[in-house]
Input
Amino acid sequence: MWGFLKRPVVVTADINLSLVALTGMGLLSRLWRLTYPRAVVFDEVYYGQYISFYMKQIFFLDDSGPPFGHMVLALGGYLGGFDGNFLWNRIGAEYSSNVPVWSLRLLPALAGALSVPMAYQIVLELHFSHCAAMGAALLMLIENALITQSRLMLLESVLIFFNLLAVLSYLKFFNCQKHSPFSLSWWFWLTLTGVACSCAVGIKYMGVFTYVLVLGVAAVHAWHLLGDQTLSNVCVFCHLLARAVALLVIPVVLYLLFFYVHLILVFRSGPHDQIMSSAFQASLEGGLARITQGQPLEVAFGSQVTLRNVFGKPVPCWLHSHQDTYPMIYENGRGSSHQQQVTCYPFKDVNNWWIVKDPRRHQLVVSSPPRPVRHGDMVQLVHGMTTRSLNTHDVAAPLSPHSQEVSCYIDYNISMPAQNLWRLEIVNRGSDTDVWKTILSEVRFVHVNTSAVLKLSGAHLPDWGYRQLEIVGEKLSRGYHGSTVWNVEEHRYGASQEQRERERELHSPAQVDVSRNLSFMARFSELQWRMLALRSDDSEHKYSSSPLEWVTLDTNIAYWLHPRTSAQIHLLGNIVIWVSGSLALAIYALLSLWYLLRRRRNVHDLPQAHQRPPVQVRGLRRQWLDRAAALCWEAHAQQTHGVQRTSPISRYTDILRVPPGNGSQLQRSIFSALVVAWYSSACHVSNTLRPLTYGDKSLSPHELKALRWKDSWDILIRKH
Output
C-alpha cells in the first residue's frame, strides 16, 4: 500500500520553448516602462472618466460598446487602489500621485502580450508549419500599431485578445472533434469559444464580426455532421445541442451578466441620468430617486404633475409654460393666436408643474378618497403657476406650419372658444382600465376636438420663445413615436384651492412612500436601446478616417506629445507588414477566383474527390474552409480599420509557406532568401518607428522629417 513512498514521484511535461520565448518577448515589449509617459494619452482621457465612475459607483452611459471592456479597465484601477479622484479633462495632463498608472495599463498590456503566443498557436492549429507559426507570431510581436495600443489604457488590445481566443478555442475544439468528441478538453474548448465570443462582443460591437465568423464555420461543420452516416441520430442531436448551448446560449447569458454586474456597480445617480427615462432615474440612488421619494403612485384628478417627454431628443425636456404669449405676427408674416406660450423646457422649473383637472368639476384639489385617472378618461391640464388650461386649435404652429399651435388659453372675448379637452391614452397599458401611474405609465394626450396629439417637434423657438423647444398638435400621428409620449416624473396630491397656497404647495415634498424598483430586464432593455440610439446619432469623430486610408497607411494618429521635448507617440502601423498583408490577401482572392473559373471550364488544378483518398479529400476541403475563414477574418479587419486592422494572422502564413516539394533546390533557396529579406525589412521598419511607438526618445526636427514617409502623416515638429 505504501510502496509509492519507496520510489520518487516524477512529473514529466512537454514545454514548447518557442511558445515560452514568444510569451516572454511579448511581455517585455508591452510591459517595458509601462508607466511612461505618466500623462493622459489620447483616448485615456475618454476611458479614464468611466473608470472613475466605476470607482465612485456612479451611473454612466457610453455608446461605444457594452460595459465589459470598461469593467476590465476598471478592474486594473481597483487592483491598484484607485479612488477615482482625477480630472480627465485633457490629453497630456500629468497624472497625480493617487493614479496607479501601471495598474491601469497592465491588463491591456497583458492582453497585447498574450496575443503574440496565441497567434503562434492559431497558425499551428490550422496545420501550417512551425516556421509559418513563428513568422506570424513574430510579426505580431514587432507590429508598431499593436504595441502602441497595448501599452495604453485602451480597449483595442483587449478586443484583439478575445477575438484571437475565440478563433483559437474553436480550432482546438474542432481538432479535438476528430479524436476525442465529448471529452473534457472537447467541452472545455467549445465552452471557451462561446465565452470568448461573448467577451469580444461585450467589449466593442466590432466583436460581432468574429462571433459571426465562428458561427458561420460552426454551421458548416454542423452541416457536415448531419451528413455523416457513421453517427447515430442521437449522437448527431447531442453534437448539435452542445454547439447550440455553447455558442448561442452561453454568449447571451454572459452578455446579460455583463450588464447585470454593471448595473450593480454603478447604482448612484450621475451626470448621464437625464438620458434615461424617469423610471430608470428613479431606480438610482440619489438624483431623481431622492426627489421622487414619497410620491403617490396613482395619478388622480387634482394631482400636480410634471410631464417629461419620453423621446428625449434633441434633449430631455418637460412640458412648460410661462406668462409670455406668441407674437401676433411671426417673422415670415404668418399670424398667431397670441395665446400663452407652451414649450418644452430642458431644466427643472416651477413652471413645469401642471394640475390634472376633471372637466366636470371646478376643484383643483384631490378629493378624499382620491379618484384615479384611467386610460380613456377626459382631462384638462391646468398650468400650475398661471391657472390657464392647455389648449390647441386650428392655428398653425410657429415653426411647424403643418401642425397645430399649442397654447394656454387666454379669453380675449373674440369668439375664439377654449378647446382644452384631452383624452388620456396609456401606451404601455396592460388593459383598458389601467390607472395612470407616476413614472411607470407612458401616456399620450389626444385633443378631443381635433384629434391632434400633443407632440414635441424638437425645433428651437426664436428669442421670443427663449430658445425653448416647440410643442405642437400633430394631426397625422401614425402609430407610436416617443415624441408624442409623456410620463409623470414628479407628482403630489394637491390639497389647496387658493392659488397663493397652491404655489407654496408646489414646492413642498410629498408624504406617501411608494417603491418603484425596475426589474433588471427592464433596465437592461432601456440601457441597451439608449446605447444603440446614441450610437446611431453620433457625429463623425475628429480623428475618424476611412478604411482605405488604413489599408494604404495614408493616415496616422498623434497620441501624445511631450510638453517640453519632441518626444511623441503615434498610432502608426509597420508599413512593410501592412502592405504585404494586403497584397497577400488580394493575390489569394484573385487566385481563388482564377481557380474557380478554370474549374468551371473543366480544368481541375486541384484533384477531384474521386482522384484522391477520402482522408486527403477531407484535408483539402478543410484547407479551403480554413482559407475561406481567413478571408472572412481579413474582411473583419477591414471593417474595424485601425482596431482590428493590425491583427489578422492567416494572411501572413501563405507568405511564409515553403514552395511545393517538387520545386528545385535553387527555387527553395531563392524563396527562403526572399522571406528573410522581407522579414528583415519589417524588423528594420519596426525599429526605425520605435521612437514614435514608445515615445521615449526626443528626435531632432531633421530626424522627425525623415520619419514622415508620406505627406499625409502628421508627425509633429516643434518650431523652436
Summary: The chain is about 45% helix and 10% strand. Residues 509-515, 609-622, 624-662 have pLDDT under 50 and may be disordered. Residues 556 and 572 are 5 Å apart (CA to CA).
